[in-house]
Design a protein that fits this description.
Layout: H1 2-34
Length: 35
């Protein structure tokens, strides 16, 4: 039971990190295009 909870936690955690990285890269490229 605990293994399932930990697995779900890590999947969600990795998804959030990936989304944050994608947003950061997007902002970086937009800033570069504007300036």
């Amino acid at each position: 039971m605990n293994e399932i909870i930990i697995t779900v936690f890590w999947i969600v955690h990795c998804s959030l990190c990936t989304a944050a990285a994608a947003i950061a890269l997007h902002i970086k490229f937009v800033s570069a295009e504007v300036s």
